[in-house]
Specification:
By secondary structure, this protein is mainly β.
């Protein structure tokens, strides 16, 4: 996410035999009727796990992670933030206890290039045997790569739209167009985005046409500005059930996640755990070991082992890599010291 609101608000499928970095390693377990997504959640949190490197980049924050697990290796793409702007980074590791030791591969040194790049999402597009990295660059952009483990292999950015769609301009107010997210079903691919002003947008194109041919966006969901803010995730949780997660800013000024379900990415969204009293993830339903290092549970992603474009996850024993922030942090939003931590679901019913 990349919204520059006042700091008082900011803080208050492929074959299993293929090469391991080239496609999805395995499918999630077959889901049964008892594996339906539940309507309330509790979590435990790690401490802060990933920090900026002490190098010439002088990065202030590591943010907006997208993560997949392939044969025991976690591949993470994230935003790097500092007062001068945003860029992207890639790193990998095999154990979360060693995540902070992973080498940072700065993607502005690849064909992705320098300039405004933020809020990545990574997935393997099986119909083309290619990895896609989706991100914001003032537009909604993508790069492709045959090998997720080769940072230099990413292509230069290609935009999904010719300029800012009119519906965004008409509804964005003083917000920002951010946090692009793609998911596909058997027929279509859907591109979601947010405007920091209470609107979730959706475009779509056929699976056979992707990444070309995105339709003009429509408003998929709306609410008050801070109740539907940014950082959406959409997942298939088995069969025809889909889970939507969107970040909100709570009455205490801290970030948290609400959730909804639908029978299609293009369908109507029905509230699941979608209030401050019953959130998907908020400081009130997250247990920390000792003093909480963050009061905000902000932009992140469910850890996926099925890495293809369907974004299929098991609703059981969820893990969520997120960004958090010291409750005492102050200053310019872009220069805030965001760190990455891990939520582990503690009340899984399956």
């Amino acid at each position: 996410m990349l919204s520059s609101i006042a700091v008082t608000v900011a803080v208050c499928a492929a074959a299993a035999s293929a090469a391991p970095f080239r496609d999805a390693p395995r499918d999630v377990s077959v889901l049964t009727a008892t594996d339906a997504i539940q309507s309330s959640f509790t979590w435990s949190s790690s401490g802060a796990l990933v920090f900026p490197k002490n190098d010439s980049r002088t990065i202030a924050g590591v943010k907006d992670p997208s993560i997949v697990e392939i044969d025991g290796t976690y591949h993470v793409f994230a935003s790097t933030a500092q007062a001068s702007g945003y860029s992207l980074v890639y790193f990998n590791f095999t154990d979360f206890s060693q995540a902070n030791n992973a080498t940072f591969n700065y993607l502005d040194e690849t064909p992705i290039g320098s300039g405004y790049r933020a809020a990545p999402e990574v997935f393997y597009f099986a119909p083309q045997s290619t990895w896609f990295l989706i991100y914001q660059n003032g537009n909604a952009a993508y790069s492709t790569n045959e090998d997720i483990g080769n940072p230099a292999g990413w292509s230069a950015p290609t935009n999904f739209y010719n300029g800012t769609p009119s519906i965004i301009t008409e509804n964005i107010g003083n917000g920002y167009w951010v946090d692009m997210w793609v998911i596909c079903d058997a027929a279509d691919c859907y591109l979601f985005s947010s405007d920091d002003n209470g609107h979730l947008y959706r475009s779509q194109t056929s699976l056979s046409s992707f990444p070309s041919g995105m339709s003009d966006p429509v408003i998929a969901l709306s609410d008050s500005q801070y109740a539907l803010y940014e950082a959406s995730n959409v997942y298939n949780v088995g069969g025809s059930q889909y889970l939507l997660i969107v970040e909100a800013i709570g009455s205490d000024g801290n970030r948290y996640f609400r959730s909804w379900t639908s029978n299609s990415p293009g369908g109507t969204w029905t509230g699941l755990a979608d209030t401050e009293a019953n959130p998907f993830a908020r400081s009130s339903n997250v247990a920390f070991n000792g003093t909480a290092w963050t009061k905000s549970i902000s932009h992140g992603e469910v850890i996926r082992t099925n890495t293809d474009q369907t974004l299929t996850i098991s609703p059981c024993n969820l893990r969520y890599l997120y960004q958090g922030l010291s409750p005492n942090a102050t200053g310019d939003y872009n220069a805030l010291p965001w760190r990455l931590g891990l939520l582990t679901q503690t009340n899984s019913a399956c």
